[in-house]
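Suppose you are handed a protein chain with no further information: no name, no annotation, nothing but its sequence. What can you learn? This example shows the usual starting point.
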Amino acid sequence: MASVPDRPDDIPVLTQDEVTQLFDPLTGADAVALGVSGGPDSLALLYLFNDWRLQTGWTGRVLVLTVDHRLRDESAQEAATVSRHCEQLGLDHRILVWDGEKPASNLQAEARDARYRLMAQDMRAARVTCLLLAHHRDDQVETFLDRLTRGSGVYGLGAMARDQANGPFGLRLMRPLLGLPKARLIGELTARKISWAEDPSNRDPDYKRVRLRTMAGLLAEEGLEPDRLVETARRLRRAADAIDTWVANIWRASVTEHPAGPLRLDFANLAGLPREVRLRLLARMIRRVTGRDKPLRLSKLEFLEDRVLSGDAQQTLSGAIVLRKGRDLFVWKEAGRELPARILLAEGSKGNWDDRYCYSRQDAVSESGPGPLTLGALDQVPGTSAQIDWPAGWPKPAFACAPALRLGDRLLFVPGLFEAAGTRFMSDVMLCRLPDRAADMLAHGKDGQGPEACIY
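A reasonable first move is to predict its three-dimensional structure. Written in structure tokens, the prediction is:
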């Protein structure tokens, strides 16, 4: 643990009004989780949040989560130290461990993914959806510069959102400290005589984020101050919001979603749009049919759009097939080398299938017959083509990954395509499309871009 340095005289601690303003968006929340690693940023978040909680009399549930990645010998001790801080503050704290063999490459990205996954699992069990993170102004600058080096467009350069409704693993991420420089967070801990852990990787130039931090300092010396970069990101985010509103209007008016998964759009409605709007609409369609939150590379999306406009019949990108056929544009999930997993629907089970559909089965089931009740892709069910009255105007391959319920080898139900006669069990089984998180995000005025959710 680092020793406590003397607090610089020119760095004031936050006033009560400033703390209230930081956390005011949480006033109506009934439960939140905090991601706290033991570093200075997250410890400052922990103590400032607790100040606000006590000052305002907020009575919601608080869950503090620390992920021990097991990448350094000190990580277990650092997690235990966070536990002691939480015990002193009277807050519930849990340590989550990233077990198993660690990847040899892309370690930081894999660790970040594991961190969000572990926290999301614990939060779901605790019925908490909102996660507070300690990203600050300096992190925002690094994110902007990182996206700039990758050739990002308006969405990527919008950097991180203060309130990200569509975060990794479905989490709502809130970053109350995003407008504060790191120096003020250090000043808070110093004034309270609180020590913190230092991750050696934060000084290792082998990591890009460390080099970007150095770059930000050099740019500041040339007059490009952090506040100016943050303001640029904010303006780009504002432009992205305008494009998203346009896309949402087009989606409501022109995109048809089949209950079994594929999408259809009148090609003329796509071709007549400005290119930036076309790209965003295509990206959203791809994400909708695949259920994936992974970023799309702008260069690949631009190439696909060029091919579609030039008349090429079929393109593939990020697990989706885009087909221009006559006056229509179709987008559907690519079957690929492996179809979505086939799962057993045991009594009382519930969950989501292929990140596209949710299901549940009640305890009491009236249907009996040979074989188990399973949910899988339509292409996994033999001999189905003759049973289905295929919808006019839709390509048959678009339904290869459609969800299909079957009892043994007998096909029972495919949304919008097939329902077996005399089937009684459907009163005990629920299968429905997961909500379009992008649509929900726009409807509630939330911005969905973040370090993991960025489209391009």
